[in-house]
Amino acid sequence: MNKTQINKLSIRIPDDMHVHLRRDQMLINVLPFTAYSFGRAMVKGNFNQRPIIDAGGVENYRNEILTNVDTEFNPIMSIMFVKSTTPRTVAEANEAGARVLALIPGKTSTGSDDGIALTELKKYYSVLKTVCQKKMIFSIHLELVETPEGNAIKEPERERLAIPFLKQIIKDIPGLKIVAEHVTTKELINFIKQAPDNVSATLTAHHAVLTRKDVFNEKGKIINPHNYCKPVAKTKKDRLAVTKAMTSGNPKFFFGSDSAPHPISKKMGDNPPAGIFSAPVALPLLCEIFDRKGKLNGLENFVSRFGARFYNLPLNRGKITLVREKWIVPFEYAGVGIFKAGETINWSIED
User: Fold this and answer.
1) Which residue has the higher pLDDT, 185 or 269?
2) 258 is catalytic
3) pLDDT tens-digit profile of 122-161?
4) How far apart are the first and last CA of the chain?
5) Contact 318, 12 (CB under 8 A)
6) What three-state secondary structure class fits 225?
7) How far apart are the C-alpha atoms of 114 and 56, rounded to whole Å?
8) DSSP state, 254?
9) Is the N or the C terminus of the chain less surrounded, counting Cβ atoms within 10 Å?
10) In the predicted structure, residue 108 carries a pLDDT above the cut 70
11) b (16+ CB within 10 A) / e for 64-77
12) pLDDT at 318 over 60
């Protein structure tokens, strides 16, 4: 006997625990998509100019976000873990409202040139111990860019080869709350499952639907820059592992969109920046993913409960409703290409 099809789903207002909102006019353009769908978002500050690295940056960026939002939206502030970060930097940023120290290792992604390499982390354990003492979150983009000898590591292998560094941090600083961001490989997902309760991971919608073939040709050339992100999409085996973890009901995994807009003019250039602008489709696409797995009733936990609980935040009040209603994703908004552009999504947010 077939189960009754669900055509409308109301869930508690969700959280996006990893998003890039940019600054200035770009922020004004993209912020409404996140603020409309989510009650809170952990906002990253890896900017090439004016990165968020201290208390002053936290205050200025929070004010810029709140000035440009007209809904009940609360940014969860972070500072970037860079070579100048000290225990005092962390303590002062925490006093200014930062809940997260975010590491994007050097040479890994946009605005990461001054990021600490995983091979250098032991030199900064005093910083991580302060994060632990302040009951903050250590957010880590877990990719090893090069070997200790300085040899470059191919992008598909970077996440897997970074796992030993995460394992070492867990051992050396017990109790440090760690979020492995935008996990993409079966190996790291399996590691997170058996890690202590103070270790969790965010999962993106795009890594649940993309594989390497959606981004690169057989020679490794980018053929669809709007699907190019870091960490790069992996194999079908890895994609299935992401989807399985996402819909499993395991509280170690919660939603972080990693929505990262770039102008179309730059994405279509010779050296496109990494980043997928998924905020306009995030919730409907997640609803579709959970629907296909017959797990719609688990969506609320993934987007509205697990992340908040790990961050020790109260659950959002109010509801948002999604309906089984097809729509075609626009190609762009304000000069930024949208993920899944031109494709049909079977769920939409009810007005």
Assistant:
1) 185
2) yes
3) 999 999 999 999 999 999 999 999 887 888 999 999 999 9
4) 33
5) yes
6) helix
7) 18
8) E
9) N
10) yes
11) bbeeebeeebbbbb
12) yes
The predicted structure's pLDDT at residue 302: 98
Structure tokens at 75: 């940014």
Q: Give the chain's radius of gyration (CA, Å).
A: 19
* Separation between Cα atoms, residue 227 and residue 216, nearest integer Å: 9
Q: Which residues, in sequence order, are bridge partners of residue 140? A: 103, 180
Confidence at residue 112, expressed as pLDDT on a 0 to 100 scale: 67
At the second CATH level, the architecture of 14-313 is Alpha-Beta Barrel (3.20)
163-167 — which CB contacts under 8 Å span 24+ positions?
Answer: 163/187, 163/188, 163/191, 165/118, 165/119, 165/121, 166/140, 166/142, 166/191, 166/199, 167/191
Residue carrying the six token digits 């030199």: 123
Which amino acid appears at position 319 of this protein? K
Q: Domain map of the chain by residue range?
A: 14-313
Q: How far apart are the C-alpha atoms of 104 and 78, rounded to whole Å?
A: 12
CB 64 within 8 A of CB 25: no
The DSSP output letter for 305 is I
DSSP state, residue 330: P
Distance CA 342, CA 303 (A): 25
